[in-house]
């Protein structure tokens, strides 16, 4: 898709390409499936905003921060694509810095035992407790749908192409950087977390990110992680508004 976007940087992106190269019905279905997907995801993120705010304000009704978040993001998206970009930049920066710091500190514990009395944690948890695919190929395929859903949002590269300055240059950089982002922010973070904790214990320790930050000596781990996931929820809703509005426009 990156090659096609390079040649034809249009807002419709994959929906337009499906219509042009397969059939108009394919483009229509692609656009509306994307709209439906982002409406569901966006609304779930709004609900999560209320849930995350309850950490600091437990008696605040969830709908209040949800409405405030939607209003704020709607104003940003209606103002200009630049405003959308500014919001997304700062939301992304918070997530990126947090994950990179966690990975660096995590490797310090894994290799050198920093903050752990000099005792390196090692990576034996990666193959202990049943090893890779402990539930076999069936378990692997059952988990695959959830894993694939985690990559939702990559398609925004194509949707934003029609409104990107110098798309032939910037879209190429964005597409080529995807693999490195996956390696660092997905695989790197999971590598550190699973090295710290057996995979079969992750469901009972609460948030693995909170537990990991606490393990590396950050005493305010819960509040920090809650703030990060709050901005992540805002980012998800922001992306949903941007994507679905463009898909509705070209449908």
Features:
single chain, 251 residues, globular, amino-acid transport, cell membrane, transmembrane, membrane
Q: Which SSEs are present, and which pair or pack?
A:
Elements: H1 2-7, H2 13-21, H3 24-53, H4 63-79, H5 81-112, H6 136-149, H7 156-159, H8 167-196, H9 208-215, H10 221-250
Transmembrane segments: 63-81, 93-114, 134-157, 178-197, 209-237
Protein name: Putative amino acid permease
Subcellular location: Cell membrane
Unreliable parts = none
Total tally of structural domains: 1
Quaternary arrangement of the chains shown?
A: single chain
Q: Radius of gyration in whole Å, from Cα?
A: 20 Å
| N-to-C series of helices and strands | HHHHHHHHHH
Question: What is the terminal-to-terminal distance?
Answer: 19 Å
How would a textbook summarize the main sheet? Answer: none
What level of helicity do the residues show?
over 70%
Beta-strand residue fraction: under 5%
> Helices and strands: which structural class?
mainly alpha
Q: What value does the average pLDDT take?
A: 85
- How many distinct beta strands? 0
Annotation field: number of helices: 10
Name the shape in a single word.
globular
């Amino acid at each position: 898709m990156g090659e096609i976007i390079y040649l034809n940087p249009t807002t419709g992106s994959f929906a337009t390409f499906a219509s042009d190269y397969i059939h108009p019905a394919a483009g229509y279905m692609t656009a509306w499936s994307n709209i439906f997907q982002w409406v569901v995801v966006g609304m779930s993120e709004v609900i999560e905003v209320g849930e995350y705010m309850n950490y600091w304000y437990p008696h605040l009704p969830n709908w209040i921060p949800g409405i405030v978040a939607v209003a704020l993001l709607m104003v940003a998206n209606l103002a200009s694509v630049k405003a959308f970009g500014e919001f997304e930049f700062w939301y992304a920066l918070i997530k990126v810095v947090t994950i990179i710091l966690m990975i660096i500190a995590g490797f310090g514990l894994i290799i050198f035992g920093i903050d752990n009395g000099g005792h390196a944690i090692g990576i034996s948890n990666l193959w202990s407790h049943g090893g890779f695919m402990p539930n076999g190929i069936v378990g692997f395929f059952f988990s695959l749908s959830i894993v694939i859903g985690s990559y939702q949002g990559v398609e925004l590269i194509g949707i934003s192409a029609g409104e990107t300055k110098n798309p032939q240059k910037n879209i190429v950089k964005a597409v080529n950087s995807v693999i490195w982002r996956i390696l660092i922010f997905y695989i790197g973070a999971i590598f550190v977390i699973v090295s710290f904790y057996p995979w079969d214990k992750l469901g009972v320790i609460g948030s693995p990110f909170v537990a990991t930050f606490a393990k590396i000596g950050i005493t305010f781990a819960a509040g920090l992680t809650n703030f990060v996931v709050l901005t992540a929820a805002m980012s998800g809703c922001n992306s949903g508004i941007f994507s679905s509005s463009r898909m509705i426009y070209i449908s």
